[in-house]
Amino acid sequence: MTDLLKKIDAYIEKIALETVTLENGDILTMGIIMKCLNDLEENSQPLDNPTFSDLTHSIKAYLEKLILEEADDIVPLEEGIECLQLVSHSLINQGVFEGDISSTLEKLGFSKSGSMEEKEEAVDEQEQEAVEIYQDQMVNEEDREILNDFIIEAQDNLDTIEVSLIDLEQDPNDLETINAIFRPFHTIKGVSGFLNLTKINRLSHSAENLLDKARGGEIRVEGEIIDIILEAVDLLKGMIISLRERLEGTDSEEAEADIIPLLTRIEDINSQKDEVGDKLIGEILVQKGAISKKELEKGLEQQKNEPGKKIGEILIEDKLAGSKEVVSALRDQKKFGKHRIELQVKVDTRKLDNLVDMTGELVISQAMLRQNPFISSVKDQTVIQNLGQLNQITSGLQMTAMSMRMVPIKNTFQKMVRLVRDLAKNSGKEVGLEMFGEDTEIDRNVVEELYDPMVHMIRNAVDHGIESPDERETVGKEKRGYITLRAYHQGGNITIEIADDGKGLNKKRIIEKAIANNLMNEESKLSESEVFNLIFQAGFSTAKEVTDVSGRGVGMDVVKKAIERLRGRVEITSTPGRGSTFILSLPLTLAIIEGMLVRVGKENYVIPALAILESFRPSKDQYSTVEGKGEMILWRGNLIPLIRLDHLFGMRSDTDHPWDGLVVAVENGGEKRCILLDELLGKEEVVIKNLGEALKGTKGIAGGAIMGDGRVGLILDMAGIFELAMNSKTISF
Q1: Which candidate, 274, 237, 268, places its Cα nearest to that of 254?
Q2: Thinking of the domain 408-587, which architecture would CATH place it in?
């Protein structure tokens, strides 16, 4: 039973995830949720739990209402799924659910009937009843005449649509042709609604919406869309023939027509983007044998004199090709173009991680082979060529293996839609969410760790950043505030921006709170960036009162620690009255790090490239000591504390004086330090290795990497290094 409950819970979590992004009219997502609910209902039968069954059944029935546009409020659906999660968790943890779900069932319109099949039967009965009013009761001859007129007019309109669709395929941008198709659908929709012919009304309305998007330039009407509209025409024709036969007193199987799959496909088409094929129409026609090369050249020559005409139109007008062949070529063009369906296969994530690890080992072995003194001394050109090819193959394999673990950040972004909506509702504010760059890819492991920090920042944006509608109107803003999520690649990293158009950070209030918490004194001179970074201190909060959302001083320190664990950094920009932006810079993957390989004494270290600001050789004039603050380096007009790794790690360095060695300026959490080195060995991408349980959690060390010479280079953790230096007895900051 435990395995069954876990399987059921997995279905529910999938349904809940799809519901997060659901909006009114999103038939495609509703169809996915309906399929999941059907699977859930089928797999949960052995559970034999009436509460669970009634709730599942009610959610399905309400979803059907949303699909058929008999309801437009998705909140009851969301509450029902949340309740379903609660029931499932109770059954798993306690073996029984004793709560009261009657209010949830009431909102869903609980009924023991109402499956999709029953709903379709109800709609058929509704239409049959409408016919019987005219057929059997014969209220008056005028009503019967209205229905007959509708049937005749609808058949004529559908014939007109078919003819116009052929013209539209020749010129997808012809607005007049689109209007000529739109108008008949609009007429059928209007009259069928008046006559209570529900199925005909739903399908014609959906097709009308598709064409309305085409009129607005949102989609292009080409081959696949033409097929969908033609299928809608065929289905409507069948239903109208069925209607006529029932009016005449004969039975027809067409009455059982199922419109839901086609409605779902229409919404699917609405969500797709057009891709123009690479293959030219003329080339396709020649390959098909519809025209000869000579005929194509003749058509192209004529097109030079009539640049406004398409080659397909010219070939048809000159009777060099038939309209059927040109239409077929147009569809083949799309098929041969860039818009192809990529085949995918599901892979166990453990196998994927194992592949990445093994690829990392291969890269290390290849680097060791390349730097082996015996191999490097070989002069045979065949061996050198083979080693070069091995290097290319290894690099390509590494990139492919890493890309397999990359996933779009879209799912994480979309989870925030529900969060923003709930937070806005609870706080009485009007808040919208805008998302850009959702297809930006990032390591799956990074995505999983990123969710909690983003939740904390969005909670703060809604609670502290966005003002109430009245406050926004008072300062001349729209009542509705906006939070913007943006993701993009930059310099080998992924950057995520979380911005709001609220009141911005109160610099004065932050300083007052920091002084009260002994984080700074009144004489401290901090830059704007350093002031803003104070909000990442544990227990720091400028909220005047504690709410259900925030104000307890927990959250932002969690954000900082989580981002640092991911070897990333977070920056803040804020403008009073205009809002704040949190900029997260993260590595694309946790398996490989790009860094600067350096030497101190006999040891090699890797400094993450993301932390490096500049490397330079300081002069004697740039070096100084400050009482109580230790050694300092003058860098870009500021005195920056100097860190000696040999002092921190208890080893011997080749350099005693900073001006005899090299210095690397690094940054972490808004703080800057200079690190004294003996030598810069170069920039490399290294595979990160865990140091094992014995050395796990060693402060200042993020991991290890096997170098090309077979030695281990330690990867420095800047946050840990800064903390070690701060607490060092040798150097006091």
Answers
A1: 237
A2: 2-Layer Sandwich (3.30)
